[in-house]
């Protein structure tokens, strides 16, 4: 138990919770890609998800726990690292990668994005019954929805920031777990690119398709 709350233990928790979040993003992307197949298919998918409401709710609470674990551990680890870097033999912060130095601020921006997403999409979909046109709500030209250009810009910036977090997270995960460099530069490198490159690109393509009325 003591190991879990050590610096290394918390880094492992951050990496593993980040991996679970990455897997969730893959499934979430598949749901969003259904938008390309039209209104009927998307509405049918949402109605099906509502029909297994209990299972979805358990998964959502699990996801919330993972997010909280990830955020809390990230903040605690950043605080410990900052204190350690104030020591006598600390390495100058200028030598740290830019994504490491800005991780906490980009993380706060992502948290702001999550709040918007939950408030306008998740909460709205929870209040709608099965007769609603969920497809139309996805395309609304109002703040908080993807048909609204400023909101779309916030989404794209947030997704790009998430991509940098995922890339940093996968590199940290492999190093923390002691994965040999030949594997890190081999198949695992391409698996990581799927999560931090291809998946975020998929979300951005959905947003752009809505903005340019390809999805309508």
Structure description:
This protein has helices at residues 7-33, 39-51, 53-84, 98-101, 103-127, 134-138, 149-176, 181-184, 187-211. The protein is mostly helical. It has a single domain (3-79, 99-211), classed as Up-down Bundle (3 helical TM bundles of succinate and fumarate reductases). Residues 88-93 have low confidence and may be disordered.
Summarize the structure.
Helix content is 75%, strand content 0%. It has 216 residues and is an all-alpha fold. The chain has one domain (3-79, 99-211): 3 helical TM bundles of succinate and fumarate reductases (Up-down Bundle), CATH 1.20.1300.
Q: Biggest sheet: strands, sense, closure?
A: none
* Helix run count: 9
Report the structural category. Answer: mainly alpha
- The amount of beta strand, in percent, is under 5%
């Amino acid at each position: 138990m003591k190991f879990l709350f050590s610096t290394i233990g918390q880094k492992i928790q951050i990496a593993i919770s980040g991996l679970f979040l990455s897997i969730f993003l893959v499934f979430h992307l598949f749901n969003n890609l259904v938008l390309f197949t039209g209104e009927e298919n998307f509405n049918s998918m949402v109605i099906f998800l509502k029909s297994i409401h209990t299972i979805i709710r358990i998964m959502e609470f699990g996801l919330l726990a993972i997010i909280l674990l990830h955020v809390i551990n990230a903040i605690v680890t950043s605080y410990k690292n900052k204190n350690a870097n104030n020591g006598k033999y600390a390495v100058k912060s200028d030598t740290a990668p830019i994504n490491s130095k800005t991780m906490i601020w980009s993380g706060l921006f992502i948290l702001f994005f999550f709040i918007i997403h939950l408030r306008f999409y998740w909460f709205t979909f929870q209040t709608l019954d099965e007769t609603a046109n969920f497809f139309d709500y996805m395309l609304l030209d109002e703040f908080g929805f993807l048909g609204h250009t400023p909101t779309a810009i916030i989404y794209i910036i947030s997704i790009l920031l998430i991509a940098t977090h995922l890339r940093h997270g996968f590199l940290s995960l492999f190093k923390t777990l002691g994965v040999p460099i030949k594997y890190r530069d081999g198949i695992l490198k391409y698996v990581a690119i799927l999560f931090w490159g291809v998946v975020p690109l998929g979300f951005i393509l959905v947003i752009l398709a809505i903005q340019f009325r390809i999805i309508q």
